[in-house]
User: Fold this.
Amino acid sequence: MSENKIPYKIYLEESEMPREWYNVRADMKNKPAPLLNPGTLQPMTEEELSVVFCEELVKQELDNDNSLIEIPEKIRDFYKMYRPAPLVRAYCLEEKLQTPAKIYYKFEGNNTSGSHKLNSAIAQAYYAKEQGLKGVTTETGAGQWGTALSMACSYLELDCKVYMVKCSYEQKPFRREVMRTYGASVTPSPSESTEVGKKILAEHPGTTGSLGCAISEAVEVATKTEGYRYVLGSVLNQVLLHQSVIGVEAKAAMDKYGIKPDIIIGCAGGGSNLGGLISPFMGEKLRGEADYQFIAVEPASCPSLTRGVYAYDFCDTGMVCPLAKMYTLGSGFIPSANHAGGLRYHGMSSTLSQLYHDGYMEARSVEQTSVFEAAEQFARVEGILPAPESSHAIKVAIDEALKCKETGEEKTILFGLTGTGYFDMVAYEKFHDGVMEDYVPTDADLKAGFDGIPRFPGNMK
Ligand SMILES: *Cc1c(COP(=O)(O)O)cnc(C)c1O
Assistant:
């Protein structure tokens, strides 16, 4: 099809929306390593996981075999509130860069939560409701995940208790109020409402909290409250599965116009949007049907793939969660102030870690000010104000497009634009005022985190 026939935005019809999620694990020869019970070092059983997570979600977590999993009708109906998400041809950015590359992005920011997280929030809330539960608990840092979950829970009339990292709770009141608008209760963490919270407060009076600590509180409340379970917004296999709706839709839109990407790029925090975007394409690569270049982009301040180690580690700072094998900086690693709050997790999805380890995917780390330069350049020509997290992908997409300008190659680039940045204007302000800093941890900084990774035979020599 000739190029000028490709519209600025490709929207699928509602009838063309995916009816199934695609489970990339089914096509992986080396499956992601199982979660381990930290006490026995044996793989977590369905029963053990069901104490913390909803039953159907546990099945999805452990399912390495079924490639297609039906999306229940009620979830598909909810998806229709904000999906299909457009696949945008970045004609204006191409023009600005004077590149022969063809750039596309899948825009997931077109909903009140402002990110792709709603795709998994509704799925997790749905299965909790189906199980007859009263409510769910979770943690949130900057607030995107908590907002998404609040929206999903209010739709299904499920109670939602969010533990929000205290410094965000105090400094970022807007997302907190969005969550309360959707009926969630929001507690600053650490709090006096849990044993682990009290313990942390006694040991560190005046602490402003951390994501790891909020996870520990949310898990405690879920396991001690009748009719509640805990849900998590990234990292887990089930979350990547739900996020495959991004990739399946993107691929359907591209197939409709005969477009084949050469390079697929996504930002990587816990790995859910990237895993979801690349899934169906990675499936083709794993089955030997097609080849693509996949690039994960992470902040230089929190470089789990590019500088981490591949080992079993704790998922949370309180060390109450199972051990996951992943590229990690150590659960005690505290990334310095980085405005891409959603990319500050110390580890990476086990599925993506395995694919990276097996050489199916590349990773790059980028520094903060270069990310905001790319964000601003993008906003000025494409109109959308991107989230700082998403802008990591923009940065590398622009780098690749500029390489094409040098070589004259007409590569097709697809990247995930995960969300909007309206709640991140303090970061944009710092950038504009020239006071944003690029922090890159030293090897000594990283070593302190690695030292906290559990030692047992076969793990961390
Ligand atoms: C949470 C978030 C991310 C990072 O999370 P992943 O699980 O790695 O996708 C990226 N972009 C936005 C806008 C987010 O809210």
Residues 115, 117, 144, 234, 267-273, 342-343, 387, 389-390, 418-419 surround pyridoxal-5'-phosphate (CB under 6 Å). Residues 135 and 225 are 9 Å apart (CA to CA). The chain is about 40% helix and 15% strand. The two ends are 54 Å apart (CA to CA).
